[in-house]
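Q: Here's a chain of 427 amino acids. Please give me its 3D structure as tokens.
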Amino acid sequence: MKERASVFRYAGLEVSDDALIGHYELDGRDFEESVTFEGVGALTRPAVRAIGELWYLVAGLSYYKTGAPRQVDLASIPVGERGRALLRGALHDGLGEFAYRNEISLDDTVVSGGSSASTYAPLLGANRVLTPFGGGIDSVVTVHELNPELEQALFIVSPSSGRFDPLEATAEVTGLPVIRARRTLDHQLLEDNDFFNGHVPVTTMVTLLAAVAALASERGGVVMSNEHSASSANLRWHGRDVNHQWSKSWQAEQLIADAVAERVGGEFTVASFLRDRSELWVAKKFANLDQYHHVFRSCNRAFAQAGERRAPTWCGVCDKCLFIDLVLSPFMSRESLRDIFQSEPLANPALKDQLAALVGIGLDHKPFECVGDPSESALALTLTSASEQWADVAHVRELALLASCDVEASEMFEPRGPSRVPAHWLR
């Protein structure tokens, strides 16, 4: 077992007109992360800086995890009660998978320091919104389902190694303007160091960067694309839910919204447009957007930080490729899906065990990936298995008979659970 470090300290945030630079220390080792924005106004305005400070708090977890110390010192960074609640949630739940995989309980981590937080009134345009765009089916559907009366722009975060080609190609199809941020991680994270490794709440970081960009361009809200099943935990460990998608969950959305409101008031909205929708509802909508079918990409291997490690096509064998093939299969022809993937993940007998895990058979927990809950996957498989197109794929029918869905099919296509989406975002 690796030894945990002693103290992680927030060493200061630099804010210039177009960049945020966060400084951190772990037992005397310095880390630095920077984010440079394009197409926005000055980040130095008080309301914008205030949200930058929230980003700085959560972004620090990428460096905290390297040593997972029991003491965190916020120094004099403005935090606020709700900002502290967000950091606490991101630490204990956003790093839940990290803790599980490394067999480290973070319950003994003590956070000290931090100063009170002031509230600033930003300049807002309620009908001008910013939509973080990842190039997958969720964000594409959000773009098209959002009220067309809104003035919408995309927000894209790229690494210092260069833009992601499939994401850029998909964004171009939307025809919408793009506001950008370039994120440069400390080089030590990318080197072969003796660090603890694991999943961090990246989507929470991106959400806060989008809020920075939206406020700096005088927009009234950030439109996320996190659907209902993102709140579904993978497993329970040491009395705590472990959710790979915690950053996209209802709990995280509320914590982020509360912390943002504490700093800039309640007029600015951060909400997920798909919060009360299932992945099946999203897939059905996406199936009709054929202009995206040959450019979109959800396979994580296309989005590696290092450019030379990025896969040029769908890999066809990971859980994400398999899930996207599965969830689209009730609504698109088998031939069309084959054209997209240049393979058939769902028909591949080598992926039978992975498919079984997606639909809740075999593996004792949902795969650690951004996929729907087992009920959604089971229903998709049931619908697909009834199609003659898939009659020759024995394991599809076999697993469909074994899988169980605890909700009626009709419920998957109706709103499910709470949503914070304001009325003027809807058609």
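Q: Can you summarize the key feature?
A: The radius of gyration is 21 Å.
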